[in-house]
């Protein structure tokens, strides 16, 4: 798993023999498994050259986590086979996305008074502070899981670590090299997941015959992929409404400050339709899609049936945003994505909510539907990744190429990339 310490260690002990050119990004969603083959070079110019999508069985996932490993392996194999046949290559490495209500991401800040303020900043100082932020974040993740599950000593593991900000004597610096100062402050964003979830993904990669080079939290991947100059300066909120979970990421103060996930998303609407109309889940899903794409003549009854579910979703989003805000102002830009965001009436319903009255917005936020075409860091050469439902796999594909940076770039460049993107 990639973390700050492995970045530091691998960069200073790199091997020039590593030469990655193709990689698979695997998005194991509640409704679909999506596989992307991405091609990239040393300049990080990357292209998507293969794509596969296979529908999941209804028992395969629970709350965004794998619950049936054997069948997920089967579906993943089918999606990867479709993608690799299209790409006409067989990558050896794979990166897998992870989501779910028990995946915890938080920002941690630590301060260190340097004994020799005139000495230039050294790697060891960053090593020590990075390690301390991870220890602090680990304890916080365990406390949150205890509150969520009631289970003590849940085994968790670091999956992502990104430096948000470095300050020396109160001044923000984007490249620590050559700087001197007394008071060093490091802010890092760390993501942890339960070991049982990570173990399932490691098993899937192993059984599929690929080298697992990274597990990436999906809201983290999306947030990193839309990190434009505007997002860096003014911040943004990303809300990914999938099949099993709604994942929220906060970009603020030039970096990713936190993520929240909860188990209410597209499948909840499907279950409501199945229950009320006495349909199978598959037929209910088809009805939901027809409803969302404007293919039904009469929608009033469905409007009424889904109203309470939509209100619960809106309330869940507002609770998550309140926790992420921590009494500080929230960014004015909100991006919606994910297959669940296309439900008829959902986007309009969020726009009509008066969130700015109960949450720390300066004014009514600007809400936009994010599409895969908005992820510009990777070129979709095959033209298959379009719409809100493909934001996650395209973002995973882009971030999958970034993992190579630990071998190819020096630490100061790496820190600048993490801070500036």
Automatic annotation (TrEMBL):
One protein family per Pfam: FtsA
Coiled coil feature spans: none
Keywords attached to this entry: Cell cycle, Cell division
Gene3D superfamilies: 3.30.420.40
Keyword Cell division: yes
Gene Ontology annotations of biological process type: cell division
All residue ranges annotated as the SHS2 domain in the record: 23-226
Domain of life: Bacteria
Protein name as catalogued: Actin-like ATPase involved in cell division
Organism: Halobacteroides halobius (strain ATCC 35273 / DSM 5150 / MD-1)
């Amino acid at each position: 798993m990639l973390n700050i310490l492995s970045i530091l260690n691998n960069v200073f002990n790199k091997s020039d023999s590593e030469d990655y050119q193709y990689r698979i990004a695997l998005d194991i969603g509640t409704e679909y498994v999506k596989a992307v083959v991405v091609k990239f070079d040393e300049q990080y110019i990357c292209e998507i050259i293969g794509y596969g999508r296979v529908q999941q069985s209804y028992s395969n996932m629970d709350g965004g986590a794998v619950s049936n490993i054997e069948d997920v392996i089967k579906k993943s194999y089918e999606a990867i086979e479709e993608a690799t046949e299209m790409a006409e290559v067989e990558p050896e490495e794979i990166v897998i996305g992870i989501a779910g209500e028990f995946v915890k991401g938080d920002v941690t800040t630590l301060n260190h008074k340097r004994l020799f303020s005139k000495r230039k900043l050294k790697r060891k100082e960053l090593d020590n502070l990075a390690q301390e932020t991870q220890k602090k974040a680990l304890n916080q993740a365990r406390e949150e899981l205890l509150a969520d599950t009631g289970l003590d000593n849940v085994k968790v593991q670091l999956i992502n670590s990104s430096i948000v900000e470095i300050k020396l004597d109160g001044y923000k610096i984007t490249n620590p090299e050559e700087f001197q100062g007394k008071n060093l402050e490091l802010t890092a964003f760390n993501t942890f997941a339960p070991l049982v979830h990570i173990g399932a993904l490691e098993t899937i990669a192993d059984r599929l015959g690929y080298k697992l080079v990274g597990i990436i939290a999906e809201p983290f991947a999306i947030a990193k992929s839309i990190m434009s100059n505007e997002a860096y300066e003014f911040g943004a909120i990303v809300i990914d409404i999938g099949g099993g979970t709604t994942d929220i990421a906060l970009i603020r103060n030039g970096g990713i400050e936190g993520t929240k996930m909860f188990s209410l998303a597209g499948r909840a609407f499907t279950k409501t339709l199945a229950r009320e109309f006495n349909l199978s889940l598959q037929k209910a899903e088809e009805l939901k899609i027809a409803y969302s794409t404007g293919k039904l003549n009469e929608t009033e009854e469905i409007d009424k049936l889904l109203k309470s579910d939509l209100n619960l979703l809106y309330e869940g989003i507002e609770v998550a945003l309140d926790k992420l805000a921590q009494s500080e102002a929230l960014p004015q830009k909100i991006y919606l994505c994910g297959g669940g965001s296309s439900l008829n009436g959902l986007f309009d319903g969020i726009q009509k909510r008066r969130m700015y009255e109960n949450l720390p917005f300066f004014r009514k936020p600007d809400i936009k539907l994010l599409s895969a075409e908005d992820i510009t860091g990777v070129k979709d050469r095959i033209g298959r990744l379009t719409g809100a439902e493909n934001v996650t796999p395209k973002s995973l594909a882009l971030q999958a190429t970034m993992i190579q940076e630990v071998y190819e770039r020096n630490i100061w460049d790496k820190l600048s990339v993490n801070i500036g993107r």
